[in-house]
Amino acid sequence: MTDDLTATLAPYGLRCEHHVAPLGIGTQAPLLSWRLRSTRRGDEPVSYRVVVTAASSGDETVWDSGEVADPAAVSVRGPELAPRTRYHWQVTVTSADELANSAGSWFETGHDDWTASWITHDPSDVDVVDAPDEGAVALPDHGLRPPVELRREFTVRTTPDNARLYITARGLYEAHLNGHRVGDHELAPGWTDYRDRVDYQTHDVTELLQPGDNLLEVTVADGWWSGYVGFDPRRSGAHYGTFPELIAELHFDGEIIGTDGTWQSRRATTRYADLLMGECHDLRREPEPWRPAVVTGDDHTRLTPAVAPPVRVTEELPAKSVAPGENGYIVDFGQNVAGRVRLTARGLHPGDRVVVRHGEALNIDGTLHTDNLRTAEATDILVAGAEATVTFEPRFTYHGFRYAEVTGLTELSENDITAVVLGSDTPPAGEFACDDPAIQRLHHNIQWGQRGNFVSVPTDCPQRDERLGWLADAQVFLPTACYNADVAAFFAGWLREVRGAQSPDGGFTNVAPKLAGVADEGAPGWADAGVLIPWHLYRTYGDEQVLTDNLDAMVRWVDFVHRHNPDLVWRHKVGPHFADWLALTPTPREVVATAYFARSAELTGRAAAVLGEENTHHLNLAAHIRKTFVETFTTERGRIAGDTQTGYLLALAFELLPDDLVPLAVDRLVELVTDAGPAVTTGFLGVSLIAPVLDQHGHPDLAHALLRRTEPPSWLYPLRHNATTIWERWDGYTEEAGFQVPAMNSFNHYALGSVGEWLYRGVAGLDQAPDSVGYRDLLIRPRLGRLGRASARYESVRGTTSSAWSRVDGVLRMDVSVPPGATATVHVPTADPGGVRERDLPVREAAGVRVVHVEPGTLVCRLTSGTFHFTAAAPPPQEKP
Ligand code: BGC
């Protein structure tokens, strides 16, 4: 965003369904949204108008919202639309002094009248090349088959004005048109429960077509459809399908080239390509002759336009070091990532095997640590053909790694090898900075944890044979994720999987997308993500549609738990119960479960109220569960059964206790935290709550003490061991015991990184008020701890918000930005509340500022929109704890 001093109130950052100028969106009334900026303090929108025109018909107006007097609006749902059509749209926003400014963008709808067929290569074509290899170093035999190549030649009479490729696969696909790669999506079409939906993508290929002969070539590989998925050793047939298939339609000049029996197919020379095992390129293999492709069906009912942003290459990292080791070369990329390695291999002879293994850590002896990968081989293999120099990069796999071990080469330089980072391309939304390098590093690691685990769906980890969409991990990390990136579309896509996995009687699952054959009733805190996530997305992005889409599923879930636990203590459980997973002090299962039952009932009731439902059943149910929780698990002195940090955190964060017990519970929580170190001893469910709850209940300095701690268990301890992502466990590696049990020891799990939310909200102080939705009313309340400065900037749905503070030589400076149409409550921490100034005026005289009250050490004011610069006497640095 540039600061144009002549600009008054203006819309910017236009999105359609949360995407910038998307191709191929659904035709149901799309969300058209804009953000607001202004260089004038107190600038307010009073009305907006959105006009949608159809590009193909000379920009004829197809929808006009008219002038809508709604100062709160930063979005509107457009009209029902025609398929395969480009629309332009313009929003005009008028300010209180009747100045109007506009901005425009476009979007294009997808395809809903498919005629093409699903095709593949003859699945019975299995011969000797699939057998274990005869070479010097045996190639692995995982029972995997080569990817399939499909192609179609066609003629184009004149240069087309417009051409679109609608394409997807059961498996993963990569398309080339006339030798040029189509689009930049990776691991497309992404992971869904393919039995319910297969997302298709839309590519503008106008520039790739040429008059005369054209060739469309597509490779399809197993991917999540027919490859190894999760820790279930069963592969083909056990999950979704047995061999990859393609469906595509190329539209240009009224013609359609669709997949059908006129296509040709063959097996690729690649021996196999699998997400968990890796990829094997055998350059000795001659391409096979083309055969007619096999048509496998023409079911179009499950084809859905992609909702989430695609996976892309988001960065490339050069090697930090390449060192000859006991076993080949060890390459350090300096950062634990999800992705793959691009390698230029030199000095090859036919039949040479170059093997690239991936790991997150090194063993004490400098060798690659792969014990924690379990059965995921995460190994890419190149078998050399005639060429002495080859650049090798797998296409249909990804690994979680910081290190690569390369064997089979006699030379390797840092310039020959690159880490190619993959991840769902969610637009960055937030920045956080402070003057403590360790906390800054923690934030960096949290962001990388998000990047490495948002790969089509939110996964637990990117390295071992798991990589599943575990619901609790996503739920506890969501508030942090929302600050780091715009994840509205990413989660809208995944929530289809969460709903799709719900059992007919209402049980949400533990993982989504659902895996064939895995139908367990989700655990408390896991399954409840089906309620907590829509609610948090609604609060963050202000779009009621997420509640509309999910309310029925939320209701069914709460009613399911209620049906099985009529006495309101959640005891019933089919399948695993994870309680406060990986906690150092375990919390009784029923405490965790009943707390979540109350929370889910409460949020379901609130969601119904937002959508205008009169029925207060779930709010009443929540009140009864809270009462039962207190009667069953809480003593008169406010002790909660199990007496653990997480027990108190759940009770306080979910507001389960009557007012008189709250201070007692807070005191006990503080005691437990203090006695532990002060230290955090929770698992996944407590960890996201500890800093916010301590802060909210008057102990932000204790939250800071936890943040500063460097002994285990703590967030900073892994930095001692050069962590570049968040570990699954507090003690993934210790000086005394070395690596934790390999069966469960990921170095890239984001759940414990859920403290990232408090860096933005607490340390930098950038939050929205408890009842605010879509950042309409900000709450700026920094918690200084012992830091000298901190800042956060967050691109909200309403516009840019920021909070930055510093204290130098006894002077506190605080800069705050509030977007037009929003307000803020600001808490200025100061030793002298009477002496606070805004720019060069005493704060009481400043425009757009109203002093609300003075608390000890704090001046509280209300702000209009605008940019504000406060100075004050700095509070004394925090001494204790
Ligand atoms: C995953 C977790 C997940 C858990 C369930 C683990 O294997 O890695 O992150 O939430 O199982 O307890």
Care to give the gist of this entry?
With 881 residues, the protein is an alpha+beta fold.
Report on the structure:
With 881 residues, the protein is α+β, with helices and mostly antiparallel strands. It is built from 14 helices and 48 strands. Strands 18, 19, 23, 24, 25, 26, 29, 30, 31 and 32 form a 10-stranded mixed β-sheet that branches. α4 runs antiparallel to α5 and α7 (589-610) packs parallel to α9 (645-653). It is globular. The model is unreliable at 1-5 and 128-132 (pLDDT under 50).
Task: State the secondary-structure class.
Answer: alpha+beta
Mean pLDDT: 94
**How big a fraction of the residues is strand?**
25-35%
Number of strands: 48
Low-confidence stretches: 1-5, 128-132
Ligands, ions, cofactors: beta-D-glucopyranose
Shape: globular
The biggest beta sheet is recorded as:
10 strands, mixed
Distance linking N and C termini = 41 Å
How would the blueprint of this fold be written?
Blueprint: E1 10-16, E2 31-37, E3 45-54, E4 60-64, E5 75-77, E6 86-95, E7 100-108, E8 118-120, E9 148-156, E10 163-170, E11 172-177, E12 180-181, E13 198-204, E14 212-221, H1 223-226, E15 245-252, E16 255-258, E17 264-267, E18 270-274, E19 278-282, E20 291-292, E21 294-297, E22 303-305, E23 311-318, E24 321-324, E25 329-345, E26 353-359, E27 361-362, E28 368-369, E29 379-383, E30 390-392, E31 399-407, E32 417-424, E33 430-434, H2 437-453, E34 454-455, E35 457-458, H3 471-484, H4 488-501, H5 529-541, H6 545-564, H7 589-610, H8 617-633, H9 645-653, H10 662-675, H11 684-696, H12 700-708, H13 717-720, E36 733-734, E37 738-739, H14 756-763, E38 766-768, E39 777-780, E40 789-796, E41 799-808, E42 811-818, E43 823-829, E44 837-838, E45 841-842, E46 849-855, E47 858-863, E48 866-873
Parallel strand pairs: 13-22, 19-29, 39-43
Antiparallel strand pairs: 1-2, 2-5, 3-4, 3-6, 6-7, 8-21, 9-14, 9-17, 10-13, 10-15, 11-12, 11-14, 15-16, 17-20, 18-19, 23-32, 24-25, 25-30, 25-31, 25-32, 26-29, 26-31, 27-28, 33-40, 34-35, 36-37, 38-39, 40-41, 41-42, 42-48, 43-47, 44-45, 44-48, 46-47
Helix pairs in contact: 3-5, 3-11, 3-14, 4-5, 5-6, 6-7, 7-8, 7-9, 9-10, 9-11, 11-12, 11-14
